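Continuing the batch. This is chain 6 of the set; chains 1 through 5 are on the previous pages. Same settings as before, nothing changed between runs. Recording input and output for traceability.
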Amino acid sequence: MSCCGTNHDELIDIKNDESRTLPLSQQLSKGIKIVVLGEMATGKTCILHRWITNEFTNQTATVGCAFNTKTISYKNKIIKYEMWDAAGQERYRSLSQIYYRDATVALLVYDITRLETFNAVTDWVAELKQNTSNNVMIMIIGNKSDLKSSRQVNSASVNEFIHSSNSNIIGNIECSAMTGENISVIFDTISDKLLSLC
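Output for chain 6:
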């Protein structure tokens, strides 16, 4: 993954990408922008790394934003994902907002063993609403399902939040970046939703 702050050409090219004005069916191969948001140490970078490489490695805290792409063949369609992994630390919160522009999908990640990370999802949803179109698709991701014995967030609380949020939430999945459980399900769900809209 490259840090957004170190490769200005990459940042400028993506920011000025005209593909966002194309119909969704044409955007699939040009790039679907996903922003990955959540509090620090929820495993956002580990989830992306697991999906891209199918390996787990402990990651250091993201500084600013990390960027990566992955192109997949899914149900006879080519889909290119541009993933913007925003740092969860408070000091980078205002910087994260510049990465929301033209996002099609937002992954909001919380740690099932830390209630405060789930409680912060409300703030991330509000921030998304302020900085994106109402059409951005939101996926709520509970990471660290391999630590269920230390669970602080139950599925009833998550479902209650989803039903009361008045947002375009397309799904709620628990996963484990460490074991790989449900990582591919996240992106299959997104891909299915995108294809259903084409």
